[in-house]
Amino acid sequence: MPRADPAGDIGDEEFRALLTRPGLRIERIVSHGHVSADWYDQDRDEWVLLVEGGARLSLEGEGEIVLGPGDHLLIPAHVRHRVTWTDPARRTIWLAIHFD
């Protein structure tokens, strides 16, 4: 199976499900200067790994967290959070695992 590799000017932020099972979803997110319009409040825990690029996340009650390649974070269910910055000069690639 060929490997999908986002490249160049991507315009919209890309969300691609890599694996979905009951109680589990693994997705790749490609951002390029994108930020969250609203706060997320999710029913599941989310573990994120920043694969490439740079980002900042704000977690309600905890402030802003700076992420670089290789950094990861567990966001417990119902902890409100939002992406406040992704690198506008290069793509930012995330691996996100949502689980019960």
What's the architecture in CATH terms? Sandwich
Kindly identify the CATH topology: Jelly Rolls
Biggest sheet layout: 5 strands, antiparallel
Choose one word for the global shape: globular
CATH class category: Mainly Beta
What share of residues is helical?
A: under 10%
Which percent range describes the beta-strand content?
Answer: over 45%
Which stretches are poorly predicted, pLDDT < 50 over at least 5 residues?
A: 1-10
- The radius of gyration over CA amounts to 13 Å
- The domain tally reads 1
Structural class by helix and strand composition: mainly beta
Tally of contiguous helical segments: 0
Protein name: Cupin domain-containing protein
Domain Cupin type-2: 33-97
Pfam families: Cupin_2
InterPro entries: Cupin_2, RmlC-like_jellyroll, RmlC_Cupin_sf
What do these coordinates show?
By secondary structure, the chain is mostly beta strands. The chain starts with 13 loop residues before the first strand and ends with a strand. The strands form 2 sheets. Strands 1-2-8-3-6 form a 5-stranded antiparallel β-sheet, with no helix packed on it. It has a 3-stranded antiparallel β-sheet with strand order 5-4-7, with no helix packed on it. It has a single domain, classed as Jelly Rolls (Sandwich), CATH 2.60.120.10. It has no helices and 8 strands. The model is unreliable at 1-10 (pLDDT under 50). 0% of the residues lie in helices and 52% in strands. Strand 1 and strand 2 form a beta hairpin. It comes from Alterirhizorhabdus solaris. Residues 33-97 form the Cupin type-2 domain.
